[in-house]
Design brief:
The protein is of the alpha/beta class and 316 residues long. Helix 8 packs parallel to helix 9. Strands 10-9-11-1-12 form a 5-stranded parallel β-sheet, sandwiched between helices. The chain is flat. Helix 2 links the parallel strand 2 and strand 3. It has 3 domains: 112 residues, Cobalt-precorrin-4 Transmethylase, domain 1 (3-Layer(aba) Sandwich); 83 residues, Rossmann fold (3-Layer(aba) Sandwich), CATH 3.40.50.11270; 97 residues, 3-Layer(aba) Sandwich (Cobalt-precorrin-4 Transmethylase, domain 1).
């Protein structure tokens, strides 16, 4: 029986949410490598952009570092799901490191594309957010000056290319679908002959999670997006929720970050999670909500995901 002292709230739980196939593979890569190589096990940058995942792996013996100079020669290093520049792989080779590459296969596809375009004589454009690990890795597949980054329409205007140049573009995999569509349209307007791959570069998981939020956000008083602030796909989910009409959208890492005062008066709360946030964080949030409210939980499904990726060959 519902507790009559508690407010009734409807929870709209987005599906899909949380871990995608690339993140699952990356986390399992660290866990399997710990079993095979023992500790300390070095990981260049965060394996995925989620504070709780990093903390859990650190507790098992993973050591997250920013630069390969922090690793003694001959040790084992894991490259994160976001990918790394070719210069980093060369440095690892020079230090005789055992390298386990956890780069998401969908990011690897982008790396292949930019190298193929460059080999074909094309000037390459990357649509993405400067400073992000994935952008760093993709830009680093070509010598400096052979690939240009654009974030806005103004960046497109400033490109030193002409309409007669051979130009191709790729995109960061974790962008907002709608935002990217605008930039792509602007690129095509300025460079009518620009080409791209037949398949969309934005990862299926990113697109699916945004699609689910678009269905849920318009009817929610509050939207909770579970993910870390440095997670590109999580931040994009908050933007999609806001642009879809939800007036209160909060990006939180875990249950104890909920601002309970902000939920006052809410009748419908939407919940989703970025592709690097584990399902346990969602369940902890639901448990906290149940302590304060009578919940009616409805799962809203935008897509079914069955994609899986094999672990790096060194661990199979």
């Amino acid at each position: 029986m519902p507790d009559k002292t508690k407010q009734n709230i409807t929870i709209l739980l987005c599906r899909p949410r949380g871990f995608c196939a690339g993140v699952t593979r990356a986390v399992q890569t660290v866990e399997k490598a710990l079993e095979k190589f023992g500790t300390p096990l070095y990981v260049r940058h965060e394996i995925v952009h989620n504070k709780e995942v990093v903390k859990q792996l650190e507790s098992k013996g993973a050591v997250f570092i920013q630069d390969l100079s922090e690793i003694p020669d001959g040790k084992t290093v894991i490259f994160s799901a976001h990918g790394v520049p070719l210069s980093v792989k060369k440095e690892a080779e020079d230090k005789h490191l055992i390298c386990v590459d956890a780069t998401c296969p969908l990011v690897e596809k982008i790396h292949y594309q930019v190298k193929r375009y460059a080999a074909g004589g094309y000037k390459v454009i990357l649509i993405g957010h400067g400073g992000h690990s994935e952008v760093e890795g993709t830009m680093g597949q070509l010598p400096k000056g052979q690939i240009a980054l654009v974030e806005t329409e103004k960046d497109v205007d400033n490109l030193p290319f002409t309409a007669t140049d051979k130009i191709a573009f790729v995109t960061q995999t974790t962008l907002s679908v709608d935002e990217t569509t605008v930039i792509v349209s602007y690129l095509k307007k300025r460079f009518p002959n620009i080409i791209t791959a037949k398949q969309d570069d934005i990862c299926y998981a990113t697109a699916n999670r945004q699609r689910a939020v678009k269905e849920v956000a318009p009817v929610c008083d509050v939207m909770l997006v579970v993910g870390s602030v440095n997670s590109s796909n999580s931040r994009r989910l908050t933007e999609v929720a806001e642009s879809s009409g939800c007036q209160k959208v909060f990006l939180i890492d875990k249950a104890d970050e909920i601002d309970w005062a902000s939920l006052s008066g809410a009748k419908t709360i939407g919940i989703t999670a970025g592709a690097s946030a584990p399902e346990r964080l969602i369940q902890e949030i639901l448990s906290s909500l149940k302590e304060r409210y009578n919940l009616c939980i409805k799962e809203i499904t935008a897509a079914e995901e069955k994609t899986t990726f094999r672990l790096p060959s060194l661990l199979e």
